Fold:
Amino acid sequence: MKMTGAQALIECLRCEGVEVIFGYPGGVLLPIYDVLYDTEDLRHILVRHEQGAAHAADGYARASGKVGVCMATSGPGATNLVTGIATAYMDSVPIVAITGQVPTYAIGKDSFQEADITGITMPITKHNYLITHAEDIPRIFKEAFHIARTGRPGPVLIDFPRDMQQAQIDFSYPEAVELLGYRPTTTGHPMMIRRAAELIGSAQRPLIYGGGGVNSSDAQSELVALAERIDAPVTMTLLGKGGFPEDHDLNLGMPGMHGTAYANYALHEADVIIALGTRFDDRVTGKLDMFARNAKFIHIDIDPAEIGKNVVPLLPIVGDVKLVLAELNKQVSRAKHPDWRKQVDAWKREYPMGWKGDGLKPQFVIQQIHKVTKGKAIIVTEVGQNQMWAAQWYPCERTRQFISSGGLGTMGYGLPAAIGAQVAHPNDVVWDIAGDGSIQMNIQEMATAVAEKIPVKIAVLNNGYLGMVRQWQTLFFKNRLSHTDIQVGTPDFVKLAEAYGAVGLRVTEDSEVAPALRKAMAVKDRPCLIDFRIAREENVMPMVPAGGTVDEMLVD
Amino acid sequence: MKHTISVLVNNRPGVLARTAGLFARRGFNIDSLAVSTTQDPDVSRMTIVVEGPDQILEQISKQLYKLMDVIKVLDHKDEAVVNRELALVKVDADAGTRAEIMQIVSIFRANIVDVSEKVFIIEVTGSADKVDALTALLEKYGIREMMRTGRIVLSRGPRTA
Structure:
């Protein structure tokens, strides 16, 4: 079929089953936006800043398991995507980013709105393309979606020059991809799985430590089966949250810097640790050579480069977590570890999670959100104290329920990602747990949510500080609060929400929390923001200082 | 320890930048690099010399495999190879030293490829050690300019990458 490159782009997205594009037009994208004008089967959501488009595509992808798509014009449009692409890369999220580019004959001449976006994004994409022959368009899109969603998922960028959009091509979409240098291993090596089963059989104090890979491979039921079969407690990282149901007896909560004390003690005392789809991030391990030093490791991950990068395991298994666990579960013997379980329960009693003192506490607010949403809401977070409190105080029951920028730690992620998650799941309740600092980094996306009638709920835990940095200053820099008090200049969030055409509410006392949450839940046609004036000096506890060990953990 | 690795890559624009960029951002230092086409016009071959312990080399190899354009990575650590470098050396050579230099060049089976009143250009091909040895000997005559290629390597015998 004859068509233009711009029409081919839309056709490629149809062939890939794309439902929605988060985008922002611009000069070199005019041919594509002109085709979009007549396209009714593809939803285009106009964001208010390109960074919002990248995060929304990311939130959509994390919530749905599908590939998220965002689009921006050349030059500044493309560079505004960069933070969002880096966020997706660090957390292995499948997105395809399409950028306009100046015409091929103008590339390299410092043309108006020209930026070398394939060069810029080389280290933060799984792969990227610059279209230089229009007949390559179908192949490039086919490869891009394949690369984004298979193996260890990640972002792929396609740079689309304006003359390529206007060129005529004979369109046919390829059935298969041929990539000589890309063949991810998904099934684990049978001998290694057998040896892993034997090692697990010999364990006295087994522990499962799972990460984002458990969620991206949808391995919850296999993980529950393994944990119950071998009677091993489970600690899930920030990105793994929801990969194991948190109301389960064997759940220990999060490990690491702001993990539970009992998860950290269990890591320290375990004799065999099964690490699943996780990369031994420094926020989990602290000082690497002191991390879990009594344990032998089985490391299961789809990315061979993660194995041995930080911790050298006794048994490496390269493969998809779900497939490997399904095989492993057939081979491990049932076991009981009553002494180990008793020890873990003793830690749980001795170091329970909690809070002290007066005033409106963020932990209480999140607990109430959990109660009002019956634990079913999709929770998206910004970055900082709000993120850690959300992880600690909103137990999740299912995969893809908790969405947060873990690796890059991108402030401003939450609101656009919540919009993406809500678009993926229009019938679910989506809460963005925010801070007064983070929310202001992409507050303009309120307009997107209002215009598209996206009813995300935003809980601003407002303490007038860049709270996490303030906490470090308090604890490690003699409380010298250098440039972290942002009270002056922070807008009245209620008025701000109203100015955008959203609903704004304010809560200053415990007794107002539940009624305000119920009011927010009743808003179905626009976003609702609640300004929670929380106790200003509250810290996130427990805390293992950066690069520290479990012995240095601060409990309150 | 120095490792010599061969990397087979798709012969496409930007592949060198992707590969070299990976070394830079992961903190791996490249000692030398040579790139050329191969018997297959769609495939280029890079020979990279890199310093580091075995564990680092394994990480380099795994990271290289993550690039879509990398087809194969081969560490030549435990095998017999032919490896060659080429150097051009512009050295001072006047009436008093010419004969001596020509003798050294002949011992090394190198070639004098340019002669002028005051200088020779000497071309030498061989292992890194041989090139090092010759340049060390030439130093006392005064090396004005010198240029050396990266190492290239093939496995001995019928084995191919």
About this structure: Strands of chain B lie at 2-10, 30-37, 43-51, 70-75, 81-92, 111-115, 119-126, 143-148, 152-155. The mean pLDDT of chain B is 94. Chain B has four helices and nine strands.
